[in-house]
Input
Amino acid sequence: EPKREKREAAPSKPLPTAPQGHAPLIAADGSSSGSIELPAVFTKVRQNAATLFQAFLTERANARQATSATKNRARVAGGGRKPWRQKGTGRARQGSIRSPQWRHGGVVFGPNGRQYWQRIPEKMRKAAFADAMSARVAEGRVLVVEGLKLNGDRPKTRDVVAWLGKIGDTGTTVFVWNEIDESAARAAANLPDLELRTPGSLRLSDVIDSDTLLVMRPALDALVARATNAPPKHAVAREDAAKREAAMAGEGATAREAATSASRETVNA
Output
């Protein structure tokens, strides 16, 4: 029988490009709609491999559960009675059948509650995250998404695949959302090369290992807050609103005090 000819792979579509300091802007239907200027913290190219490597090792160490454990002679059940008397048997003296030299005995120096947790200063952690994001931006692998528009109330996995195909050859992709949409997340769950994250759950290893980083536009401010010591814009807005309310309350209290003192002076006169 003649052998079947192998199908040629479809040509991959290149990702959209943007000027330096900008990121391509992806519309809700997956088409390119221009570019957007990125914050300065993501456009500065840094060369601090030591900080990045230390932060990566710390993250991986802190991800370990450290649940492996063995039983020593005190934790193994049984062995409470001396197997034979101390003298007169001709055999070596033994105190318990759960001693380490016995079969089914306890384990000596086995893993038991080891902690792998490491601490890294906050400035180093933020600097490492900014370095990783800057490297991805310099490579043109960070794209800002305005929204995600899929067909119907219950989108299918093929709809997500078609949407990613409109963008280009994304490869291993991490999609950062400000809020996870359950229906879209369920449709993307079967894709092995797509991971969904929020600004709080995005890990340094996700940024390093991924080929493409898709970021929802509302989530961009939260990522900037993770790379700098500045709070996100919505937190600053809430703080400014609280200050304005406090100032208005103070002005109202001052006006009431002035009116009360004026009425007292009138009564005394």
Summary: The radius of gyration is 31 Å. The chain has three domains: 22-63+124-227, 71-115, 232-269. The mean pLDDT is 87.
